[in-house]
Fold:
Amino acid sequence: MQIEILKVHGSNNDFILLDEITHEYHFTEEQRRKLAILLCDRETGVGADGILYTMKSEKAQGRMRVFNSDGSEASMCGNGLRCVARYVCELLGIEEAIIETMKANLHVKKQEDIIPNVPTYQVEISPVSFQLADLPLVLPKNTLINEKIDQLSPDLIFTAVAVPNPHLITVVDDLDKQIDNQKSLSEYVNGPNEWFPEGVNVSFVKSIEKGHIYVRTFERGVGFTNACGTAMSASSLVTCLLNLNDLGEKIHVYNDGGMVNCVAHQTENSYQIDLIGNATNVFKATLAIGGDLNSFSFVQKEIFDDENENYKKLQQYAKKYLEQQKSL
Structure:
């Protein structure tokens, strides 16, 4: 069979977007899983962190399902949602929409470019829960906010939050000093362990100055990525709870792939976070997929050079800011 794909990224967290709104692909659940494993492989595939299945919805303007590179399905993806938001809005000729996700229908809308000529979308990150049962995290308590888990680390202080996918967040003084320990801890809680039976996204956060943080995330089902939208959103909220930043105020969030902005709001019963950042189209292509879904070939490919070059300017802006901070 042949399929049309759009390679996209949010903060260089990259995805293959498959349009099931205008195409009648009729994938089975097993085919969705196999396509993710086949196409996302960075050695033999197209290369991506996951597939964004963009579908029709009876409740909203579109529906998003996210399959990680290992074939598992994620309940939510903030960077991916920005890319789906752009695709659906441009397809329908609108500037804001509701996108159905696994656990919530979320508001998205086009925003002023984060820097000139970098298409930018704001997406709602919710629901937010600090209840450990919602991650799940198995501990003899209901919440974990700025506390130690001695069995995981004698030094790090963690906050656990679901947005709605699960996140374990710790604020550190030096992101690079403990990179090996960060990797081993993240791999441990995403393997067989007694605390996180379904795994967890792990973020290491450095507070740079008021309104500016850096986030490095190990994504469940993927590994360390250039950025994770829900992790940046959850990390922004956590820094507000720790009085490093303020609710309702814009936080510039830097990552290995660039930069986004987040605003955490307190609601009547909980919190909601606005994630604002790029939605970049890298290339579009037609693929011929083998009948057993273990091989493919490119039929045609069109690269969006201007979009790729414009995004590099955002990366350079973020890099320059970080270099200036290190020199202070």
Summary: The first strand starts at residue 2 and ends at 10. DSSP finds five helices and 18 strands in the chain.
